[in-house]
């Protein structure tokens, strides 16, 4: 059961959608003449290092939605932390101990 639950949980990702460009190295290929192969990619930081994960075209929309999920959840958490700070401050401003 936990397996099914975690599989149906929406994907959450931290990072940025980018385009990954590379040359395959074949001298006869178009990429040798300045037209590199392009593929969508997710760039993210893991353990202090920037990493890139190339994506298939069909994954782009899913990954974009997953990044969106992370950002809106983070924004919500930041807002909660801001109001937490405001409450802590107003407690002090409001005359100290009861
Ligand atoms: Zn090539």
Radius of gyration: 22 Å
- How far the N terminus sits from the C terminus, by CA atoms, comes to 49 Å
- What class, by secondary structure content? alpha+beta
Total beta-strand segments:
3
Number of domains: 1
SSE blueprint:
Blueprint lengths: L1 H7 L7 E7 L14 E10 L2 E6 L5 H34 L5
Antiparallel strand pairs: 1-2, 2-3
The structure holds zinc ion (ZN).
The site of zinc ion has 6 residues, from loops.
Could you walk me through the main structural features you see in this protein, from its secondary elements to its overall organization?
The chain is α+β, with helices and mostly antiparallel strands. The protein has one domain (7-93). 42% of the residues lie in helices and 23% in strands. It is built from 2 helices and 3 strands; from the N terminus they run αβββα. It has helices spanning 2-8, 60-93, and strands spanning 16-22, 37-46, 49-54. Strands 1-2-3 form a 3-stranded antiparallel β-sheet, with helices on one face. β2 and β3 (49-54) form a beta hairpin. The mean pLDDT is 91. Zinc ion (ZN) binds at residues 23-24, 26, 29, 31, 37.
């Amino acid at each position: 059961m936990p397996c099914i639950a975690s599989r149906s949980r929406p994907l959450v990702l931290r990072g940025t959608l980018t385009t990954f460009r590379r040359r395959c190295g074949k001298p006869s290929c178009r990429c040798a003449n300045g037209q590199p192969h392009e593929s969508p990619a997710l760039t993210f930081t893991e353990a202090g290092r920037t990493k890139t994960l190339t994506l298939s075209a069909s994954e782009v929309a899913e990954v974009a939605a997953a990044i969106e999920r992370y950002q809106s959840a983070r924004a919500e958490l930041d807002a909660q932390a801001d109001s937490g700070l405001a409450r802590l401050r107003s407690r002090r401003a409001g005359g100290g101990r009861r």
